[in-house]
Amino acid sequence: MKLHDIAHARTGDKGDISNISVIAYDPANWSLIRDMVTAERVAAHFETFDVRDISRYEIPLLQALNFVIRGALAGGVTRSLALDAHGKCLASILLEMQIRSNK
Amino acid sequence: MSILRLGAGAGFQGDRIAPAVDLAERGKLDYLIFECLGERTIALAQQARSVDPTKGYDPLLERRMRAVLPACVRNSTRIVTNMGAANPLAAAEKTRAVARELGLTGLKVAAVMGDDVLDQIGEFVLDETGNRASVLGDRLVSANAYIGIDGLVAALDAGADVVICGRASDPSLFLAPLVHEFGWARDDWTRLGRGILVGHLLECAAQITGGYFADPGFKDVPDLANIGHPLAEVDSDGNAVITKLEGTGGRVSRATCIEQMLYEIHDPARYLQPDVVADFSKVNFEEIGPDRVAVTGGTGTKATGLLKVSVGYRDGWFGEGQISYAGANCVARGKLAISLVRERLAQTSSSIMEQRGELIGINSVWPSTHETANTAEVRMRYAAHCRDVLSAQSIGEEVEGLYLAGPAGGGGVTKGVREVLAIASTLMPTAKVATTFEIKGATHEAA
């Protein structure tokens, strides 16, 4: 299945830093999301962007992750040549990630 | 006052006005707050002010004030906004003029100043360039600190009905009324953190009432076309209920609140603000009724003593052209168009610093590696960042030239050029930034 089937997400931007939240629809899928959506897998998912580094924060009370992605915005909204200079589309791109349950 | 009602009138410069009027009329609000400054907005406003000293505030200020002031005065709702942009004094003057025209007498309008730090920015090293701001020379346009609540609270304490600032941290626009009304101590980190949380949740207006959220079949939003703006009912401890007016479209749910809480946040336990480091890591949201979500668990720690400063500077020109291809073999023809423009631009003595050619619908937003053999249509987009305006113009001209001299069947060319106003950032000690406010000609020190 895709991450989109079990989670929703939103992108924000500050300068050249994008952040993407990933939130479980059902708390039952939280541990699966926490285990499968690692910073390494997110970096691989965005391999065609010039990502410099990714930090991941866990918010277990809300069954949510927050990824802070440096370098994905081609310089940031004010000097990016990208069509989506804010990177508003990045969250939905992340939701295309394939998730395999180990159960 | 046990519960304070704060409404979000706007979440960005161009935001809709009607939902703010609805809140002013039916929201029983104590405060209506308009957040209208994007990262680059104030640099653009500074340029407008340099052309005309009576301008440089939000272009929609007059329309917004004209629309909401009658209901706000009638309902004793005070207004806090950063629509002053690069010229809060002129914005306050315009607001007084609008009030006079509407026959609203006795309205106290305050302007809050101090965020403009252009005169002392030179020695500070910018994160993005690694150089002192002074290196930018005459390309430097603006430098504004994200100030906190000092000036805003002082203006409210002085009885202002409308408080207009320039650059302030967005959540501070909401924290200031809470501190003014509840008298929270300035080292009450827990309550200040909760106030920041309320402000952060509301500052993007419709983004918490179902905007920037709908995903058909997965996250459906009722009556999105008539989405209402949010309001918060905040108690004296800073706990809150987020809701919206009955009869408006959209929805407020645990999911919309979580998405907005994490919007533009880095470490959720350390959301850096001028007056507090807010901690959202233990927040909980509970749906307590239709479109009513209770927010608890926010906290905070001591502020860092540093303010973020946004520095605006002229950084060359963007040029762009687009052309469409459809039907048989359109992807290949679009790719040929990209290579033709690239080859033509390489032959001219151009000042291109960075360029990209892409096919909208194939790889413009997501430069994916998986090839698409064909599709019904593509739109070729070529964009470049150039040192001078003539080179930037040549991008669109080369794309336009494809009409007669490019691949078969190219149509619908558009082209454009614009100056790049870039933003860099740095940190400045809070102590170097003194805020003041003015009500009708008298200037006062804040704090």
Which descriptors apply to this entry?
heterodimer, A: 103 residues, alpha+beta, Gyrase A, domain 2, four-stranded antiparallel sheet, elongated, B: alpha+beta, Alpha-Beta Plaits, eleven-stranded mixed sheet, 28% helix, globular
Q: How would you describe what is shown here?
A:
The complex is a heterodimer of chains A (103) and B (447). Helices cover 18% and strands 29% of the residues of chain A. By secondary structure, chain A is α+β, with helices and mostly antiparallel strands. Chain A has a single domain, classed as Gyrase A, domain 2 (2-Layer Sandwich), CATH 3.30.1360. A four-stranded antiparallel beta sheet of chain A has the order 1-2-4-3. In chain A, a hairpin with a 2-residue loop joins strand 1 and strand 2. The radius of gyration of chain A is 13 Å and the shape is elongated. The two termini of chain A are 13 Å apart. The mean pLDDT of chain A is 93. Chain B is α+β, with helices and mostly antiparallel strands and 447 residues long. Chain B has two domains: 3-119 and 143-305 and 426-445, no CATH class; 311-425, Alpha-Beta Plaits (2-Layer Sandwich), CATH 3.30.70.100. Helices cover 28% and strands 29% of the residues of chain B. Chain B has an eleven-stranded mixed beta sheet, with helices on both faces. In chain B, strands 5, 14, 15, 16 and 17 form a five-stranded antiparallel beta sheet that branches. In chain B, strand 7 and strand 8 form a beta hairpin. The mean pLDDT of chain B is 96. Chain A binds chain B through residues 4, 8-10, 12-17, 19, 21, 23, 25, 47-49, 55, 57, 59, 61-62, 64, 66, 68, 76-79, 81-84, 88-89, 93, and chain B through 39-40, 127-128, 212-213, 215, 218-219, 255, 258-269, 280-285, 297, 315, 318, 354-356, 358, 360, 364-369, 381, 383-385, 420-423, 425.
